[in-house]
Amino acid sequence: MSEASETSVRAEVRAWLEANWDPDLGLVAWRNRLIDSGWGVPSWPKAWFGRELPMALEMAVEEEMQRVGAVGVAKTGIRRLAAATLLVHGSDAQKERFLRRSLTGEDTWCQLFSEPGSGSDLAGAMTRAEFKGNRWVINGQKVWTTSAHHADWGLLLARTDWDKPKHQGLSYFVLDIHQPGVTVQPLRQMNGHASFNQVFFTDAEVPPENLVGEVGRGWAVATTTLMHERRGADGISRWGRASDGKGRVYDEERAETATVMEPYKWYPQRAGRVDLVVQRARETGRFEDPVVRQEIAKLLCLSKSAEWTARRARAAQMQGRPQGPEGSLGKLISSHVARAAARVHTLISGADAMLSGADGAMGGVIAEIFVSVPAGSIAGGTDEIQRNIISERVLGMPKEPRTDNDRPFRDVPKNLVV
Amino acid sequence: MQFSFTAEQEEFRSVLRRFLEEKSPPSVVRRMMETEGGWDRGVWRGLNETLGLSAVHIPEAYGGQGFGPVELGIVLEEMGRALLCAPYFASTVLAATAIMNGATEAQKRDLLPDIASGETVATLACTEPNGRWDAAGVGMTATPVGSGFRLDGVKSFVLDGHTADLIVVLARRPGSAGLEGLSLFTVPGDASGLTRRALTVLDPTRKLARLEFGGVAATLLGEEGAAAGPFARTMVLAAIGLANEMVGGADKLRQSALDYANLRVQFGRAIASFQSMKHKQADMLVDVELAKSAAYAAASAAADGDAEVAALASLAKAAASEAYLQTAIHTIQIHGGIGFTWDNDTHLWFKRAKSSEVFLGDAAYHREQMMRAWNE
User: Which residue among A116, A125, B130, B200 is least crowded, i.e. fewest CB within 10 A of its CB?
Assistant: First the structure.
C-alpha cells in the first residue's frame, strides 16, 4: 500500500464525516460509529479500531473533526492511560472487553498505583495479591486515586511475590471497583478540594482473566501507563473541554465532561495561571512598577520558552525523528513555570495575598493558585524524580548505587510510619 | 513559526560544527585572544572562501548567499560553541545588517559584496561611553559640510572597532534629540581625525574599542535623519544573532561539565553518580534548552517577518543572558578547583558568557524592551 498523504487522509475523513456525522445521535451510538470507521483512533492498529496512521496524520484527522464540530472518542481522565496500556499489554480478550467501552466512554477508570508507603518509589508497593482457589485476592491500601468515586475499573499494581526483588514481584490487574471488598474514601487536600481518594481493599477479588501481562511482570506494564501519564504533562495537551454545539451528542458530551473533569477544576490554578498576570497587574495599578514589570517579564520569558520547548518536542515527534532532550523536560519545566507564576501573583496582590474565598483576589482564584501550585511538582513524578530521569536517560549519567534491588523484597527496609 | 530545523539546515550545522572544531580549537582561541587585534586575516579569509559564512544572510543581489535569520542563527550558534575568534559579529551581523536596513540601493551594491566576501571587515559604532544600546542615547553629532558630513564625539564598546576596515556610525543632527535627526554614516577605519584605541576587555575573545571622532569626514548612508527605524531593526536581528551564539556556548559548557563529571572520581565513584551532580546537570539542560527554544523562536519569527519579532528578540536575549552565565557558573563549580585555573578552558567561555550577558543590553534592559513591545 502506498503511504497515505495528508491530503488524501484529510479528503477521506472529510467525506466520511459528511456521510456520517450526526449531532442528533446519542453519544455512545456516535462513538461506536466513529470507532468502527477507524477514524476515532487513527494511529491505533487496524485490528483494534485504528488505521495505523503516523502521529502527524492523527493531528490532521483531529483537525478535520474539529472543523465540522464532530465529537471524538472519550480521551479525558485515566481511561486514556487504561486504553493505551491495554493496547500494548492486554490479551485479545481484554482488548475485546475493555477498549471499545473505554473509547465510547461507557467505562471509566482510575489508577491504583501510589500507596501511603510508596510514592516516588512505586515499585515498593505493598498491596498484596494472592491467588486463592480460582481468584486473586487483594488486600492493602492505595492513595492519590483520582476519580475512584465514579470509576468502574481500576488499574492495579500489587505484589504477588515477596521473595523476588521488588520490581520482579509485582503484577498488574484490572480490578472491578464495584465490589464489597473495595472502599473508596475522599482525601482532602491542602487547597480544600478532594479530587483524590484513598482506596482500601479487604479481600477484594480479581478473576484470573483480569491479570494484565504475566505474573511478576507488572512493573513493565505500569511503566507504559506512567509514560503516557507524563506525556500528558508537557503543558500543551488540551484539557477536556466540551463544545457548546446543539444536538443530543453535545448534551451528552457536556454531561460526561462535567463529571470527568470535576476533580481537575483547580488544575489551571495548579499550573500558575500565567494568563492572568498582565490583566491583574493592570487592574491593581502595579503594571507601571519597574520591579513588577521585571518579574512579569521573567515569568513570560519562562512560560513562552516552555511552550516553544514543548513545540520543538512535538515537531520532532511529528516528523518521526528521535526527540532531542527537549522531549523529557516538560514536566519539570511546568513546575518552574507554576512556582514563578505564584511568586508574581503574590507580588502583584500584595496584602490581598493573605485573603482567600470571597474576600480574596478574583473571588479566591488567586489564593487557589498559592495553595495548589505545590501539587504540580509532586504529582505524576516529583521534580526530583524527573531530574533523575533526565540525568540518567537523557544525559546517560550513572545511577546512584542502591541497596533495594538485589535481595528479596521482604528483606528491604520499609516505612515504619506512613 | 518553525519549531524544527530542515534536513538541509541540520546538515549545514553538522558540516559547520566539524569545520569549526578543526579551525577553532581552544589552542587557537588562546593564541588569538592574546593578540591585540583578536583575529587573523588569513584564518578569516579561509573561513569565508571555504563556506562563505560572512555572506550567509546577505541577499544574492549583493554578492551574498541569500539565506535568512534561521541560517544566520545556526552559524552563530556554532561559532559560539567553538568560541571562534573572528570579526563575524561585527562585520556580518552588525555592519552588513545596518547597511541592508539603512543604505540606498547604490550603496548596498557598492558596500555589501566586499563584506560578503570577507574582503572588507566592517563594524557598527553606535554605543558611546554612556553604555546605552538604544538610539536615543547617541550624542555624536554629524554636521553638514559641503556635500558631506563631519563627525564629532566618542564611540565606545565598538566591537572590533580598532581593526575594522569600514565603520558604520550612528550620529545625530546637531541640536536633535531622542529618535529624531539620527543618520547612519560610513567612515574608513584609517580616516583622518579618527583615534582608535583597543579597550582592555574582560573577555579577550571579543575585542572592543574606543573611537574618538575629531571632525572626521563621513559619507551619509541612506536618508538623512531617518536612521532610527533601520537602526532599531538592526539591533533586533543582532539581539537574535547574539542569543543564538550564546546558546551555542552554553550548550558547549554544559557538555564539557557532563564529560568532566563522568571522568572525575571522588569517594570511589564518578562524581556523575552523585544525585547532587545529576540534578545540577538536569537543571543545566533545562536552562540551556529553554534558552535555545527562545533563540530559535526569535530567529524563526525574524525569518517570517513576524510582527512580534522585536519582543521575541528581547525575550531571547534576556533568556540567553541568564542561561549562559548560569551554565558557566555551574560548569566551573562542577570542575571544582581545576575549573578556576587559567589552564582549564572553562574560563574562556565563562568570560564570553559574561561579556555577552551585557553586550547589546543586559537581561533587565531586554525584559523592559519586551514588555513595551508587547503591552504598549
Answer: B200
ipTM of the complex as predicted: 0.95
Q: Where exactly does CATH 2.40.110.10 map onto chain B?
A: 123-225
Report chain A residues whose CB lies below 8 A from the CB of B285. 325, 329, 390, 394-395
Domain B229-375: give its CATH code: 1.20.140.10
For residues B368 and B371, what is the distance between their CA atoms, to the nearest angstrom? 5
Q: How confident is the model at residue B376 (pLDDT cuts 50, 70, 90)?
A: low
CATH number belonging to the domain at A266-394, selected among 1.20.140.10, 3.30.70.260, 3.20.20.70, 1.10.287.620: 1.20.140.10
Q: Domain A103-231 classified CATH 2.40.110.10?
A: yes
Average pLDDT of B17-41? 96
- Measure the CA–CA gap between B169 and B186, rounded to whole angstroms: 6
pTM of the complete model: 0.90
pLDDT(B120) > 60: yes
Determine whether the interchain pair A333/B290 forms a contact, defined as Cβ–Cβ distance below 8 Å. yes
Has residue B140 got a pLDDT over 50? yes
**Nearest chain A Cα to B254, which residue?**
A395
Q: Where are the domains of chain A?
A: 7-76+239-261, 103-231, 266-394
pLDDT of residue A235: 40
Q: Return d(Cα A158, Cα A155) in angstroms, integer.
A: 10
Residue A1 has a pLDDT of 39
Instruction: State whether CATH 2.60.40.10 applies to domain B7-119.
Output: no
pLDDT at A271 over 80: yes
Distances (CA, A) of B42 to B46, B47, B86: 6, 9, 11
Q: B286 to chain A: which residues are within 8 Å by CB?
A: 329, 332-333, 336, 390
Distance CA B275, CA B282 (A): 10
Query: What's the CATH class of domain B123-225?
Result: mainly beta
Mean pLDDT of chain A: 91
CB atoms A400 and B4 under 8 Å: no
